[in-house]
Each structure stands twice: as structure tokens, then as C-alpha cells.
Write a structure and sequence with these properties.
alpha/beta, Rossmann fold, N-(1-d-carboxylethyl)-l-norvaline Dehydrogenase, domain 2, six-stranded parallel sheet, 9 strands
Length: about 280
């Protein structure tokens, strides 16, 4: 029997996928109606997490944050010998602390955050990350691989999966904010949003991500493909367009301020990726 603690969108997807594979599944959720709804899929809902985990071969946690993980683990009174797999996006410190603390209590705790939407969880696609003790990872690999499209092992560092999840989420935030700023500039210039989005059917900046990271990591700023001073000029052009239209952008002013600071240090003729220089070893 498998127990899923937390049946929000992802937990619900995981539960339904497990049931489709013929697994017996116990579920619990803080809002009980979400767990009870899964009884239509053949899961068994419990009002008490300690009852839900009784007899479970493994326990999956899918909640909101470190505090929620701690609360549900405390309420469940997880016994020695249990296997807990936590898919929650948490802090690195939380992942380290729980791994060590529960190991002392005889509980195997593994952090396995995901890059998945609800449909991915239902269809067992998307990306799942693991890291930590090699024996533990080897034990859980055959259990987790059927739940995801790709299981990525990030090595023995206990909090590597937590760190990589946060790195990915930061990029998604910046990427989405960038898309929003494009729509803001489009509005300022009276370009319909559909036309602005259509540009990216032809211009795909995703192809440049790997090269940009390599240039930053290598500190290869001396042979620019786009000089920082020219990038700053374009930022001024964009700012002028939105100012005339009364459109307020959130991301561009911060980028411009960073450019100004690095230019003031004498790097105006360097590749614009030099704005990353202070984040390198």
C-alpha cells in the first residue's frame, strides 16, 4: 500500500496515476474533501494522517512548504522503518535537517522535488529530482521512475535536489516576468499581444541559454556578441516607449540599474553577460 499525504493538484495527479497502475493508495489532505473526492478513483481517504500511513510501504508527501511538511510529519507520527519521499518544494536547510533528523529516528527521508504540472503527475511525465545517500537513491529509483518521465540523480549531496528545484523555479519566475514585460512593451507600442507572441515563433532565445551560461561561467566577456553599453542603450529605448504610454514595467528598471553599476566599473565594452560577474567564484 502507498500513502499520499497532500492531495492538492499534484498529489491528486499522483494518486490517480498510482490507482491506474493498480496500486492500493491511502490519502490524506488538510482539507478533507480533496482526499474524499479520490475515493471515486479507488483510493481510501483518512481524516488522520497517522491512520493513513498505517501499513504503508512508502509515504509520499506533496504539500506547500517546509512548515507544512513538518506539520504533517509530526501529525502522522511516522514510525521507525518508514520510507518517506517528499516532493514538496522546500528550502535546502529543511531538506538537510529532515534527512538527518529522521535518519536518527530510523526513518528514511528522501527529498524528490519535481518539475511537473498536474497533468504530468497524472500521466507520469515531467521531471523528478533526487539526491543524497547512494543506497537510498538506489532503493527508491525503481519506485520513482514509473511516476515520472525522467528521474534525475544529482549525486550524494543531500540538498542538491532542493537546490536545483529552486534554481529552476527562479528561472521560471524570471522567464515568465520577461514574457509579461514583453506584453507590457507591446501594449505601450500598440502592438496586439498576439502579434508580440508571434515573434517567438521565429525568434527562439531558448537556443542561447546554454551558450550564455557557458560564457558567464567561463568569464568570457572580452569578445562581446552584444556590448553591455549597447544593451543598456536598448534598455533606454524600451523604457522611453513604456514611459510615453504610462506602462510600468517591474523587471526592466532592476536590469538597467545592474547594467549601470557594471558600466560604472568600466565594463561597458564587455559582453553584456558581464552583469553576472559578481555571482561567480
Amino acid at each position: 500500500m502507498i500513502c499520499v499525504l497532500g492531495t492538492g493538484l499534484l498529489g491528486t495527479g499522483f494518486t490517480r496515476a498510482l490507482r491506474r497502475k493498480g496500486e492500493s493508495v491511502h490519502v490524506w489532505n488538510r482539507t478533507s474533501a480533496k482526499a474524499i473526492a479520490l475515493e471515486a478513483d479507488g483510493a481510501r481517504a483518512f481524516a488522520d494522517p497517522s491512520e493513513a500511513i498505517r501499513g504503508a510501504d512508502r509515504i509520499h508527501i506533496v504539500v506547500s512548504d517546509d512548515a507544512a511538511v513538518e506539520a504533517v510529519l509530526a501529525a502522522a507520527a511516522v514510525p521507525a522503518g518508514a520510507l518517506v519521499i517528499d516532493h514538496t518544494t522546500t528550502s535546502t536547510a529543511g531538506a538537510r535537517d529532515r534527512t538527518e533528523r529522521f535518519a536518527k529516528a530510523g526513518v528514511t527521508y528522501l527529498h524528490a522535488p519535481v518539475f511537473m504540472g498536474p497533468q504530468n503527475a497524472l500521466e507520469s511525465t515531467g521531471l523528478m529530482l533526487v539526491s543524497g545517500d547512494r543506497t537510498v537513491v538506489a532503493r527508491v529509483r525503481p519506485l520513482l521512475e514509473p511516476m515520472t518521465g525522467k528521474l534525475v540523480d544529482l549525486g550524494p549531496r543531500v540538498d542538491a535536489a532542493a537546490a536545483s528545484k529552486l534554481l529552476g523555479n527562479l528561472f521560471l519566475m524570471a522567464f515568465t516576468a520577461g514574457c509579461a514585460e514583453v506584453l507590457g512593451l507591446a501594449k505601450a507600442m500598440d502592438v496586439p499581444p498576439q502579434e508580440a507572441a508571434a515573434l517567438f515563433e521565429h525568434f527562439n532565445p531558448a537556443h542561447t541559454i546554454g551558450a550564455r551560461f557557458r560564457r558567464m561561467i567561463e568569464g568570457n566577456f572580452a569578445q562581446p556578441s552584444w556590448e553591455l553599453s549597447m544593451a543598456r542603450k536598448d534598455a533606454r529605448l524600451v523604457q522611453a516607449e513604456v514611459d510615453r504610454a504610462g506602462v510600468v514595467l517591474a523587471l526592466l528598471p532592476a536590469i538597467a540599474a545592474r547594467m549601470d553599476a557594471v558600466i560604472a566599473e568600466g565594463h561597458g565594452d564587455a559582453d553584456w553577460t558581464v552583469i553576472a560577474k559578481d555571482f561567480l567564484p
